[in-house]
Each structure stands twice: as C-alpha cells, then as structure tokens.
Amino acid sequence: MSQAAETVDRPWLDADAQPFIKIRGMTKRFGDFTAVDNVDLDIYKGELFSLLGGSGCGKSTLLRMMAGFESPTAGTVHIDGTLMNEIPAYERPVNMMFQSYALFPHMTVAKNVAYGLVRDGLGKSEVTKRVDEMLDMVELGDFSKRKPHQLSGGQQQRVALARALVKRPKVLLLDEPLGALDKRLREQTQFELMNLQEELGVTFVVVTHDQEEAMTLSTRIAVMDQGKFMQIGTPTEIYETPDSRHVASFIGSTNIFQGFVVENKPDHVLVQSRRDDSLFYIDHGLDVQENAKVWVAIRPEKIRLSKTPPKKAGPNQLSGIVQDIGYLGRMSTYKVKLTNDKIVEITHPNQVRPKSGEHLADWEEKVYLSWEPTSAVVLTK
Ligand SMILES: Nc1ncnc2c1ncn2[C@@H]1O[C@H](COP(=O)(O)OP(=O)(O)OP(=O)(O)O)[C@@H](O)[C@H]1O
Ligand SMILES: [Mg+2]
C-alpha cells in the first residue's frame, strides 16, 4: 500500500494532516483535586474516538470541556482550526449527549427529538422527515407520541441519542450513550453509529467504560487513568501492544509475570521469572539494561494447553495443575496453578460443541502450557 493510501483511513499517521479537534495542556482542577491533568490530544475528521477508563478518571470532565460546559483551569481546545475557549457551548459546532441525559418531561418523544431542529428554524416537513428517520433508527417509531415518563430507561436513552444525532453536527460528544441498552440493541446501535459516521462524516468522541464497545466502535482509543492518558492507539495496538501493566490489564484479561532481563539482543530478549527459573523468550529487543526489572504479559487466548509434556525443555513453557474450568459458551477458560502457586488463565474457543462435561483437561489434572515468541509483550512500567 502506498503511504498516501495508508494514511487516508489513519490520518494520525500523516504528519501533515490537521486535527479536527486539537487539545493542548488541558487541565481541570476542582479545588485542590485535579480531575484532568495536562492532556494533549489530536482527533481527526471522521474519527470515532473513544475515551476509556475507570469511574472517576476524568472522562466526562474532558468531554464537557470540549463541549464548553466546563471551563478549563488551563489549556486550549481548537475545533476545525478555531480556538473554542471563549466560545459558549451553544455556538460551538458540537452536540453533546450527557451521561445523565435530561429529556424534556412535558414533551413527547417526537418533540424531544425535533427540539433542536425547530429551534434552528427548519421547515415542518423537513423536521418531520428527519425525526421519523431518526426514531426508526433507534427503534422508537411506534413511541413518538409518548412522554419520557412512559418509557423504560433504555428507551429514554435512545430518545436522547436520537436527539443528539438528528442535528448532524460536525462533532458529536457522547457520554456513555449506550449504557442503558440491552446487549442486542447495544450492538445494533453501535453499528448504526458507525454507519452514521461513515455516511455523514461526523466526528465522534465517545466516553465509555465498556472495553468491548470501545474495541468494536473506535478508530482509536485513549485509555485514561487519574486525569491522564495512559496510552492512545488503535484497538489492535491497545490490545496487542499495550505499553504498561495498567493498560494490559485494563483491556481484556492478561497474565502478567514479573521478571528480569537476562539477555537483550536486537532480535530477541530473554526474561527470567522472579519466582522461579522459568524463561520467557520474546522476539524483539528492548531499550533496557540487562537485569532490568520487567513484566511479561501474555493473553489467555495465546497460550496452548496440552496434557502431553513438551519434547524438550526450553523457554515459553510452564506446567501446572488445572484448578478451575469455566464454560462460557463460545469459549472455555482454564485456571492453571503453577508449581510456584501463580494462577495462569487460558482460554480455548469451543470450535466443536463439547459434550457435557468434556474438556481439554480435567480438574486437578497436570497440564503443560506453551506459547509463541510473538505472543508475549514485555512491559517496562
Ligand atoms: N463539579 C465537581 N466538583 C468537584 N469534583 C468534581 C466535579 N465534577 C467531577 N469531579 C471529580 O472529578 C473526577 C472526574 O470526574 P468525571 O465525571 O470526569 O469522571 P468519569 O471518568 O466521567 O467517571 P464515570 O465513569 O464514573 O462517569 C471525579 O473524581 C469527580 O468526583
Ligand atoms: Mg462520566
């Protein structure tokens, strides 16, 4: 692929691309508590960018500063090349769906969704057409005459979502937009959001603490902790090459082994476990001294489990006793207790329908674990 083609869908790789939303040194303090701590962020036109992190890490505060509902203690936000700091929320090219979405209680569903369009002076037939389309999308076509108190929590959330989308702003800021939806509607709405983004070229910034949702939806994800960004990357980068233990264990599950570097060459690194003499061979060099303290992270689905011992001893092999087996439908998880008492989690897809009670190995059975040199990541923090 040419460089140009490669950066069309990934403008963040293009040094000349101008970010649509540009945030510099953004800080928010409440008294002596720092909710957002000096963050820089570039979001490009047409991205579906997710802010992901635990409760209280500053996601909503950052979003509210982009929208203009909270003024930063320090820092700047530009949208489409214009400095937004002094521009009030209602004049920004932005629409926000709040985490606690307030619907107008005395208005019907249709009037709630139409509100912004009517205020903008759109003609009646255009308003009706857009409201109907949007209500169909969120599967509330039959509910347009109800009032919010006659709806379930998930239905109210869909009205709020429709209300935010109907105006087709340049930037949509959505704070936990799908939190109250059931799994099926949630997945469907995720795809609708992605379609809308492709059709209308809207730039989305979505706050979520659902990692699977962030993985499915996003062009890129910022993982936040205590007001700072831990890592920004595509879903694949965040999942496959996390750069810290925090990110590795926040996204999906992972097995982390503490160790120290015993050999560091340009094409590989050898790490010895702190707990015993097991060795980890990883197929890339590292920018650290020998003997440096590091952590090796291996995802549960990247570990093979076998009842037969390996033909010869070597790195990337462990053994232990099956302590727990969980059947999750599309896969099974095995918890294996190593001789040093550490528990390692392995997942195995259920490609063929297992007969009841049939597993790769049984409770209390001795098993051997192994993985490829490409399957582990070394973390230095
Ligand atoms: N107006 C305020 N006054 C004082 N502290 C605040 C205020 N608003 C937010 N905070 C604090 O700032 C931190 C970040 O809040 P924020 O709402 O941004 O978190 P969040 O990441 O959106 O969390 P959640 O996932 O629970 O919604 C929290 O510790 C919160 O208590
Ligand atoms: Mg929040």
Distance between the termini: 34 Å
Helix share, percent:
10-25%
At CATH level 3, the topology of the largest domain is Rossmann fold
Characterize the main sheet: 6 strands, mixed
Return Rg in Å.
25 Å
Mean pLDDT: 89
Poorly predicted regions: none
Number of helices: 9
Q: According to CATH, what is the class of the largest domain?
A: Alpha Beta
What portion of the residues fall into strands of 2 or more residues?
25-35%
The SSE string, one letter per element, is HEEEHEEEHHHEHEHEEHHEEEEEEEEEE
Number of discrete domains: 2
- Strands of the largest sheet, in order across it? 6-7-8-3-9-10
> Would you identify the CATH H-level superfamily of the largest domain?
P-loop containing nucleotide triphosphate hydrolases
Which geometry do the CA atoms define? globular
Q: What structural category arises from helix and sheet content?
A: alpha+beta
Annotation, overall tally of beta strands: 20
Any guess at the CATH architecture of the largest domain? 3-Layer(aba) Sandwich
Question: Which hetero ligands occur in this complex?
Answer: adenosine-5'-triphosphate, magnesium ion
Features:
single chain; 381 residues; alpha+beta; Rossmann fold; OB fold (Dihydrolipoamide Acetyltransferase, E2P); 6-stranded mixed beta sheet; 5-stranded antiparallel beta sheet; globular; binds adenosine-5'-triphosphate; binds magnesium ion
Topology:
Layout: H1 3-8, E1 21-30, E2 33-43, E3 48-53, H2 59-67, E4 74-79, E5 82-83, E6 94-97, H3 109-119, H4 124-137, H5 153-165, E7 171-175, H6 183-200, E8 203-208, H7 211-217, E9 220-225, E10 228-233, H8 235-240, H9 245-250, E11 255-265, E12 268-273, E13 279-282, E14 293-298, E15 304-306, E16 317-327, E17 331-338, E18 343-349, E19 366-370, E20 376-379
Parallel strand pairs: 3-8, 3-9, 6-7, 7-8
Antiparallel strand pairs: 1-2, 1-4, 4-5, 9-10, 11-12, 11-14, 12-13, 14-20, 15-19, 16-17, 16-19, 17-18
Helix pairs in contact: 3-4, 3-5, 4-5
Adenosine-5'-triphosphate (ATP) binds next to strand 2 and helix 2.
